[in-house]
UniProtKB/TrEMBL annotation:
Family: Belongs to the nucleoporin interacting component (NIC) family.
The keyword Protein transport belongs to this UniProt entry's keyword annotation: yes
Gene Ontology biological process terms in this record: poly(A)+ mRNA export from nucleus; protein import into nucleus
Pfam families xrefs: Nic96
Main location: nucleus
InterPro entries xref list: Nucleoporin_int_Nup93/Nic96
GO CC annotations on file: nuclear pore
Protein name in the entry: Nuclear pore protein
Organism: Volvox carteri f. nagariensis
Keywords: Membrane, mRNA transport, Nuclear pore complex, Nucleus, Protein transport, Translocation, Transport
Top-level taxon of origin: Eukaryota
Localization (cell): Nucleus envelope; Nucleus, Nuclear pore complex
Signal sequence, renumbered to the chain: none
Gene Ontology MF: a single term: structural constituent of nuclear pore
Length: 859
């Protein structure tokens, strides 16, 4: 009872303490980490004074109260204070609903922030992947353009040597390695040379079909058969031969009849597919001889029946083998049309008599009635170029629609011929060849566009070549090329749909066609020579090979020209400018063939290759350089050289301009440029001699080499101006006299010739003085008529100096200074008698220089 009283007393005292006012007592606030820190400090102090006896007493006390000391110790050590949601989200609201809404909003914001961070990280990773992929694609494209695959190799190998190293008239030594080409590329280059010569002769050369045939033969002869591919490159050339051959058979050309030419190409593409199906049937029959049971009968219908016998060998007996066998009339009709057997198709159409044309108009108009035969329709379709008359087309289209709606009405087999004849697409076309044949058959009558085929039949929509191309371009190239395993399959589809420019661009640019870059550039040149690219671009080629539409009628020609120029650079690098010229020439013809375009191509080649002798020849416009075969007319070649020379002169390319002026038999213009070059070269050579005084007299420096090269060109111009070297050295002849008289009569020629001779004297004089040979310098000074050494000639020389050639006037100050220095140097080395004469000459030259101070010299 005493213990209970003590507890009650303690409780009463606690209640009294709680009720008292502690405002005067300072309030102490501690956080949880601080409390834990203070508790650890107190425990450390008490543990120091607690002995084993006290610890044992504490354990007994806890045991009396029902506590396990060891368990209590472990729980206290592992105590973890977990914050509640109120500690994180402070309750600033007065209701539970508002508090929950606040918690929800905070949770949403946190989720949104996490999603944004993840989105940013994903976006950055995606952009890194895109940049890496784009960089790899650009690198592959760049390397493909610089060194395309299949374009020959630099260095050794068993291939024949085409490129060569040599020295042109411009003095440039080609140190590039020889270019060794494969046999296929060598044959292609020979064909290009023939094309360029034919293009330059303005007629009388090979036609586009003959050119394509030449490339096809070269490809077949030297083709490297790729393993695991069904379409070799020779088959692509063969396709072009078949398509162009149909246009030749119909005697239509691109320039004369554009629409008829396109129709002929469509028919040629369809005929190529029909011939291919004929070969496929014969191959299948040969492979399954026992099943086909093909006898010796040469009838084409027997080929179709044998092929059907093999194809449907699992269907049981067939009607042409067994009287009560499966009816294959419609199947035979389709394969006859597919193989181009028109007569066999008409014969088998007689047995296809279950066409139900319910309209009376068809019977009245001579059409097919109930129980009628398909033969009239088939004959009409084949005779009119895959097109029916309006009455037959409307009736047949209505019947095809009825058959498609009524699945239980008739057999499914007649649908394919119905739809093919009525300009619909059969559903049984399982191969790309069958698909393309059906499309081309439907577009046979309207290849040029909606308005080109006349008025469409009422109720039957016309189908044009543009729609064929649009249908094909709905799918990417991978769809046709078996996921890029057969890139030439897509090229075949483009060629069959007459998207020839797109096919060439695809071969040239796509990464999967790197082995065919060689064929791409030559295919483009061949089609450009035929003139088909411009006509097909006008029709409405979609150009889906590179994912963009064609940029106009001239885009295909511009692409071909760009390909030819890029391909020719390999020959320029190897020093074979002659071969590069043929490709540049065909590129110029693709860009219009004007004199300005040809001149630009020639100028670019001269600047890049500097092989003047190979390109221009060494004897004027009549010389037989590489251009002689391309421009056989001498006058036209002279005009070309003059135009290019003027452009080079305006573009600060004097060396090229000099060579072109000489090639154009314009030595006066060439000599005028040479004099200006020589004047500047003399100053550079003299300055270099001053900067390198230790150089031996006979040593060659860059400036001296350039000066000697210019002087050599000047001597060639002088020889061209005065006749020939033999005429100048031999006894006077009537020809040499006439040439000399012409020079004397022409003041411009005489002025340029005198300036060149005087520049030669100035060169020798200045170089001799810089080398310390002042006696030689004074000897050469006497050969300059405008420098006075006597007082009596002072006024005359001043007047002559105001009329000097600009190239001489630029070096006049150097001549006067060198003359004064040489006279001063000689005065110290001669005797007393000669000193007076040298002093008099020095005084005259000094007075001459003073007289020229106010004179206006030519610029």
């Amino acid at each position: 009872m005493a213990a209970a009283a003590d507890w009650n007393t303690l409780l009463q005292q606690s209640a009294d303490l709680v009720g008292q006012d502690f405002s005067n007592v300072p309030r102490v606030e501690r956080s949880l980490p601080q409390l834990q820190q203070y508790a650890d400090a107190l425990r450390s102090r008490t543990n120091r004074y607690r002995g084993p006896e006290e610890q044992a007493a504490a354990t007994r006390l806890l045991a009396q109260q029902g506590f396990d000391a060891s368990r209590l110790t472990s729980e206290v050590v592992g105590l973890e204070i977990v914050p509640t949601i109120e500690d994180v989200f402070h309750a600033e609201t007065s209701s539970v609903e508002e508090y929950l809404q606040q918690v929800e909003e905070a949770t949403l914001l946190a989720a949104i922030q996490e999603a944004q961070e993840e989105s940013n990280a994903s976006f950055e990773a995606y952009m890194d992947q895109c940049m890496t992929r784009d960089w790899a694609a650009n690198k592959r494209r760049l390397f493909g353009l610089i060194a395309p695959s299949g374009m020959g190799t630099i260095g050794g190998g068993p291939q024949p040597l085409i490129g060569r190293s040599g020295t042109g008239d411009g003095g440039q030594v080609f140190a590039s390695p020889a270019l060794r080409l494969s046999p296929k590329e060598t044959a292609y280059v020979d064909m290009v040379k023939k094309m360029a010569v034919a293009a330059g002769s303005h007629g009388g050369g090979q036609t586009g079909l003959e050119i394509v045939k030449g490339f096809k033969e070269a490809c077949e002869k030297h083709e490297d058969k790729p393993g695991g591919q069904d379409f070799p490159m020779s088959s692509i050339w063969g396709l072009l031969v078949s398509v162009l051959g149909e246009a030749r058979r119909r005697n239509v050309t691109p320039s004369a009849a554009g629409h008829r030419y396109v129709e002929a190409l469509v028919a040629g593409a369809r005929k190529h597919l029909e011939d291919g199906h004929q070969r496929h049937m014969r191959t299948t029959i040969t492979r399954y001889k026992l099943v086909a049971e093909r006898g010796p009968d040469p009838d084409s219908l027997r080929d179709v029946q044998a092929y059907v016998q093999v194809k449907f060998r699992d269907r049981g007996p067939l009607d042409f083998a067994t009287p009560n066998g499966m009816d294959t009339s419609w199947i035979q009709l389709f394969y006859c049309l597919r193989s181009g057997y028109d007569r066999a198709a008409a014969r088998i159409a007689e047995r296809c008599g279950d066409l139900l044309l319910l309209t009376a108009g068809g019977r009245a108009g001579g059409g097919v009635g109930v129980g009628g035969s398909m033969r009239p329709l088939v004959e009409e379709w084949t005779a009119n170029g895959c097109r029916l008359s309006e009455r037959s087309a409307v009736a047949l289209a209505r019947e095809a629609e009825r058959l498609l709606r009524d699945k239980n009405g008739l057999r499914q087999s007649p649908r394919a011929p119905y739809q093919a004849l009525a300009a619909g697409l059969p559903a049984i076309l399982s191969t790309i060849e069958d698909f393309m044949w059906a499309r081309l058959a439907l577009a046979g009558g309207g290849a040029g566009g909606p308005g080109a085929a006349g008025t469409p039949a009422a109720g039957v929509a016309s189908y044009t070549l543009t729609e064929v191309q649009a249908d094909i371009n709905r799918w990417p190239p991978q769809y046709y090329s078996k996921q890029n395993r057969e890139p030439l399959a897509f090229v075949m589809v483009l060629l069959l749909s007459l998207q020839w420019a797109a096919a060439v661009r695809f071969l040239w640019r796509d990464d999967t066609t790197k082995p065919y870059r060689l064929d791409a550039v030559h295919m483009g040149l061949a089609l450009q020579a035929e003139g088909a690219l411009a006509v097909l671009n006008g029709v409405g080629e979609c150009g889906a090979a590179d994912g963009a539409a064609a940029a106009g009628p001239g885009s295909a020609a511009a692409d071909v020209a760009t390909m030819a120029v890029q391909y020719s650079r390999k020959f320029v690098t190897a020093g074979d400018s002659g071969t590069a010229l043929y490709y540049r020439w065909l590129a110029a013809m693709a860009r219009g063939g004007s004199l300005a375009v040809k001149g630009a191509m020639l100028r670019e080649l001269l600047v890049g290759g500097r092989d003047f002798g190979t390109l221009l020849g060494g004897g004027g416009a009549g010389a037989r350089g590489a251009l002689h075969a391309l421009v056989p007319d001498t006058e036209e070649r002279r005009r070309l050289f003059e135009g290019v020379a003027y452009e080079c002169q305006m573009s600060a390319q004097p060396e090229e301009a000099v060579e072109l002026y000489l090639a154009a038999d314009r030595p006066v213009s060439a000599l005028a440029l040479i004099n200006g070059q020589m004047s500047a070269a003399i100053a550079a050579a003299v300055d270099e001699a001053v900067a390198q005084p230790s150089t031996p007299a006979g040593a060659s420096t860059p400036s001296m080499e350039r000066l000697e090269r210019i002087a050599r060109s000047g001597r060639a111009a002088v020889e061209r101006l005065s006749g020939s070297r033999a005429a100048a050295a031999a006894a006077p002849s009537p020809t040499a006299s006439a040439a000399a008289a012409a020079i004397i009569a022409d003041p411009t020629a005489r002025r340029e010739l005198e300036a060149f001779q005087q520049l030669g004297v100035i060169r020798d004089m200045l170089l001799a003085a810089k080398r310390g040979r002042h006696d030689q310098a004074l000897q050469r000074l006497s050969e300059l008529p405008f420098i006075p050494t006597e007082r009596s000639r002072l006024d005359l020389c001043v007047r002559m100096s105001t009329q000097l050639h600009p190239a001489i006037a630029e070096r006049l100050q150097d001549v006067i200074a060198t003359a004064a220095d040489s006279i001063a140097a000689r005065r110290q080395a001669v005797g007393r008698d000669a000193v007076g004469m040298l002093a008099a000459e020095l005084a005259v030259i000094t007075q001459y220089a003073n007289s020229l101070a106010g004179a206006r010299l030519p610029q």
